[in-house]
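Before a colleague's protein record goes any further, I have to sign it off. Alongside the sequence sits a line of tokens, each denoting a local backbone shape. I want your independent view on whether this chain really folds as the tokens say. Where you disagree with what is written, explain briefly why. This is what I was given:
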Amino acid sequence: MPETQQRLKTPSAIRPRFLQMLVLLLALLNDDDLQELKEFLEVTYGIAASREHIELLILKVLPLSSINSKIFLNGLVAAFEGPLIKPSPHLSDQSMVWNTFIARLLQKGYLLPGSVEDLGCPNQ
């Protein structure tokens, strides 16, 4: 492969890993340090520098195929609602937990990728 083509492919291969590393490191910061980086993160990367936004961003950049749906859904709810909220552990309740989670995101004003029907909760 010519050197020019190799250079063009490298950034697209590095970008997701860089974003994963950046977001995971941001999650390790305490709230005061995160607040000090607020302007930089918002201007440079377009990342909202609040704990709940960072934790939801982690779930966007991690490869979702590496975990099962129950762990993923429980992680989403814990990141958004806090560790005191424990969703139902039963697989049969996952649809209800997902619908409630999507409704709560919409109530908080989050923009979601698709319509409510696309996201699996046509009753909301």
